[in-house]
Design a protein that fits this description.
alpha+beta; Helix Hairpins; Heat Shock Protein 90; five-stranded mixed sheet; 9 helices; rod-shaped; transmembrane helix; kinase activity
Length: 489
C-alpha cells in the first residue's frame, strides 16, 4: 500500500510536466543509464587490462630476479646479495620494490628492501603453487606497516624458485601500484566529470529536439484554439513527413470536416424544420382570423381544419423526436432479438389504412435462401418497425391508385433483405443522391403528395444505427425500389 502511494505521487508529479519536458527527461534517463552502464563496463575492462599488463611486467621482473638466486647441487642455498636492475622500464618503481625468499616452513631466507613490520602472507600461495599454478598474485591494501610506502596499495607476486614437484622456496616481490592507481584515478576523474557534462548536453539537446518535434503539434493547438463555430472551414496544417503527427493532422482535419458537415446539416435542419412548422401555424392563424371576421361562422369546418393542422404539427414533432433519438446513437437503442417477418407484419398493419384509401394492394413475398427456417436480427423493435413503415408508406404515397406495392423479404445465410417496390413515377436521377436527406422530396409530385421529407431520412439514420444498409434505385419500367439489408445473428 505504501509503495502504491509513493508510485502514485511520483506519477502525479511527472504528469504535471509538459510532454516536451517528459520526453526530454525520459530520453536523458535512458541515455544516462545506457551511458553509465557502458562506461562502467568499459572502465572495468580497462582496469582488468591494466592489471593484466601490470602483472605481466611483475612476472617478467620476478623471472629476472629468480635467475640471480643460486641453489647448490646438494640442495644447499646460496643467496648472493639480490640486486635490482635499473635498466628496464616497468610500471612500478624498482627502487622501492620489496623482495624476499621464503621457505615453506615460513622462514625468511633472504630479503631486500625496508619491510619494516610488513610480513607478506605465504601459506595459501604455497598451496596454490602446489596445486599447479605458475605464480600467485594478490593486492595488499593495508600497508600502514610498510615504512615510507609510495602507494595506497602494493601488488605481491609469489614465484617458485625450485623445480621440485612440490616447491619449497618462494620468491615474493611486493611493488607499489603508483602508476596503475594514477591511471585509474585519471580515468575515473574523466568519467566523473565527463558523464554529467554529456548528460547536461543531452538534456539541452533533448529539449531542443523535442521542441522541434512538437512544433507542428503546437501549431495545431494554436489553430484549433482559434477555430470558432462561425469559422469551421479552417484546417490544421499537414506536415510533409509521413509520421504520427501527419496522421494526427489528417485525423483532426477529417474530424473538422465531419463537424462542419454536421453544423451545416443542423443549420439546414433548423431552417427546414422552422419552415415546416411555420406553414401549419400560418394556416391556423389565417383561419382563426377569418373565423373572427366571418359573420356566418361555420365553427365545425374551422375546427376540423385546425385539428388537421395540429395533427400535421404533431406528426412533424413526432418525426423530429424520432430523428433526435436516432441521432443520440447506439446508447439510445433497446436491442433485442427480432424476427423480420413479424416486424413487417406490424408495419403493414399500420399501412393498411393509407393503402386502402388509394385502393393499393400490399403484396408480401417471403423467400428463404438459408438452411434454417427463420433468421433473427438484433435491433430496436420500435425503430426497425418505423424504418419499414416509412419506406412502405413512401411507396404507397407515390404509387397511383389501384396499383400494387410489392414487399419481398429474403432470408439469406448472412443477412436478411427487405425490398419494397412501387409503380410510381420513380426518383429523378438528379435527386437520387439526396433522397435520404432531411426534408428532401424525391419527386416532382411533391405538391400532390403529403409529407414533410423526414421519413426516408429517419429510415436511413435507423439503418446506419443498426450497421445495416438502406439504398434506393429505380427499377425497370416505372417506380422506385428501396432495399434494406441487415445482418443476421
Amino acid at each position: 500500500m505504501f509503495l502504491k502511494k509513493i508510485h502514485k505521487k511520483i506519477y502525479n508529479f511527472f504528469s504535471s510536466f509538459s510532454i516536451r519536458l517528459r520526453l526530454s527527461l525520459i530520453f536523458v534517463a535512458i541515455f544516462g543509464v545506457t551511458t553509465i552502464l557502458f562506461n562502467t563496463f568499459v572502465f572495468k575492462m580497462m582496469i582488468d587490462n591494466l592489471q593484466q599488463d601490470f602483472d605481466d611486467a611483475l612476472f617478467n621482473y620476478a623471472v629476472d630476479v629468480s635467475e640471480g638466486v643460486e641453489i647448490g647441487v646438494k640442495g644447499d642455498l646460496n643467496f648472493p646479495p639480490l640486486r635490482l636492475d635499473h635498466g628496464k622500464i616497468l610500471p612500478f618503481p624498482l627502487g622501492t620494490a620489496l623482495i624476499q625468499v621464503r621457505h615453506s616452513s615460513g622462514a625468511v631466507l633472504a630479503r631486500v628492501g625496508n619491510f619494516g613490520e610488513f610480513n607478506p602472507p605465504y601459506k595459501k600461495d604455497f598451496e596454490r603453487i602446489w596445486g599447479g599454478e605458475e605464480a600467485t598474485y594478490r593486492t595488499i591494501e593495508h600497508i600502514s606497516n610498510i615504512p615510507s610506502a609510495e602507494a595506497d596499495s602494493y601488488r605481491l607476486i609469489s614465484f617458485p624458485l625450485d623445480n621440485a614437484a612440490k616447491p619449497q622456496l618462494l620468491l615474493q616481490i611486493a611493488v607499489p601500484m603508483t602508476l596503475l592507481e594514477t591511471q585509474i584515478s585519471k580515468r575515473l576523474t574523466l568519467l566523473e566529470f565527463g558523464i554529467p557534462i554529456v548528460l547536461l548536453i543531452a538534456t539541452f539537446g533533448g529539449l531542443f529536439l523535442s521542441a522541434r518535434a512538437l512544433a507542428p503539434l503546437k501549431r495545431m493547438i494554436d489553430i484549433t484554439q482559434n477555430i470558432k463555430a462561425s469559422e469551421l472551414s479552417a484546417r490544421v496544417p499537414v506536415p510533409n513527413a509521413k509520421d504520427e503527427i501527419q496522421k494526427l493532422a489528417l485525423t483532426l482535419n477529417a474530424m473538422l470536416d465531419r463537424i462542419q458537415q454536421a453544423f451545416q446539416s443542423q443549420e439546414r435542419f433548423v431552417a427546414d424544420a422552422s419552415h415546416q412548422l411555420l406553414t401549419p401555424l400560418t394556416i391556423m392563424r389565417q383561419e382563426l382570423e377569418l373565423l373572427q371576421k366571418t359573420e356566418k361562422r361555420d365553427v365545425d369546418l374551422f375546427i376540423r381544419s385546425s385539428l388537421q393542422e395540429v395533427d400535421n404539427l404533431a406528426n412533424i414533432v413526432q418525426e423530429m423526436l424520432l430523428l433526435a433519438r436516432a441521432d443520440a446513437g447506439i446508447g439510445a437503442l433497446n436491442l433485442q432479438e427480432l424476427s423480420m417477418d413479424e416486424l413487417i407484419f406490424d408495419a403493414l398493419s399500420r399501412c393498411e389504412k393509407i393503402a386502402n384509401a388509394k385502393s393499393i394492394k400490399l403484396k408480401l413475398n417471403i423467400i428463404n435462401e438459408s438452411n434454417e427456417d427463420r433468421k433473427m436480427v438484433l435491433g430496436d423493435n420500435d425503430l426497425l418497425e418505423n424504418l419499414i413503415f416509412n419506406i412502405v408508406e413512401n411507396a404507397i404515397k407515390y404509387s397511383p391508385n389501384n396499383e400494387v406495392v410489392s414487399i419481398t423479404l429474403t432470408y439469406k445465410n448472412e443477412t436478411s433483405e427487405l425490398m419494397v417496390e412501387d409503380n410510381g413515377p420513380g426518383i429523378p436521377d438528379d435527386q437520387l443522391p439526396f433522397i435520404f436527406e432531411r426534408f428532401s422530396r424525391g419527386s416532382n409530385m411533391e405538391a400532390r403528395v403529403k409529407g414533410f421529407g423526414l421519413g426516408l431520412a429517419i429510415a436511413q439514420k435507423i439503418a446506419i444505427l443498426h450497421n445495416a444498409k438502406l439504398s434506393a434505385e429505380n427499377h425497370l419500367g416505372n417506380g422506385a425500389r428501396f432495399i434494406f439489408e441487415i445482418k443476421n445473428i
